[in-house]
Write a structure and sequence with these properties.
This protein is mainly alpha-helical. It has a single domain, classed as Winged helix-like DNA-binding domain superfamily/Winged helix DNA-binding domain (Arc Repressor Mutant, subunit A, Orthogonal Bundle). It has a 3-stranded antiparallel β-sheet with strand order 1-3-2. Strand 2 and strand 3 form a beta hairpin. The radius of gyration is 17 Å and the shape is globular. The model has no long low-confidence stretch (mean pLDDT 91).
């Protein structure tokens, strides 16, 4: 009964949003000296790990709007950390590719990993795996829900 009352008040959603903001703050502070934000770091690392993709693909993968992504990518492009090229499959789209130099990429990866450790230090390895499993489950359900897209 108590859990139902807490969920009705939106406490679960509010805590997830609060956790996101705190994690983002930790990552932004760690990355401050690199000249890129936590959002930009995640964009660059995703492009590095998964390869070039369109803004639409990137937006879907990160659950960010086109407007938010365009601003972040413009700033990354100004720093010559991403490159836009016309998509070979769609003349209206651009493919984005990370241009993050290896040394800076290693630094960003290290700082993001440090942030992860700091943010989730209260959890055991099995709790981290369970949290990731539960988050993936919620994300998968919401990605199928037209109202959440």
């Amino acid at each position: 009964m108590q859990d139902d009352v807490r969920e009705r008040r939106g406490e679960l959603s509010n805590n997830v949003v609060r956790l996101f903001r705190l994690i983002n703050r930790v990552h932004n502070r760690k990355l401050r000296d690199t000249g890129i934000s936590a959002e930009q770091a995640h964009i660059l690392l995703l492009l590095y790990l998964e390869g070039p993709m369109t803004i639409g693909q990137l937006g879907k993968r990160l659950a960010l709007s086109s407007a938010t992504l365009t601003g972040a990518i413009d700033r990354l492009e100004d720093q010559e950390l991403v490159q836009r090229a016309p998509s070979p499959d769609d003349g209206r789209a651009f493919v984005l590719e990370s241009r993050l130099p290896a040394r800076k990429r290693a630094q960003v990866e290290r700082l993001v990993e440090e942030g992860e450790r700091q943010c989730f230090a209260a959890l055991t390895t099995s709790e981290k795996k369970e949290l990731l499993r539960l988050l993936d489950k919620c994300i998968a359900q919401l990605e199928m829900d037209p109202a959440a897209r």
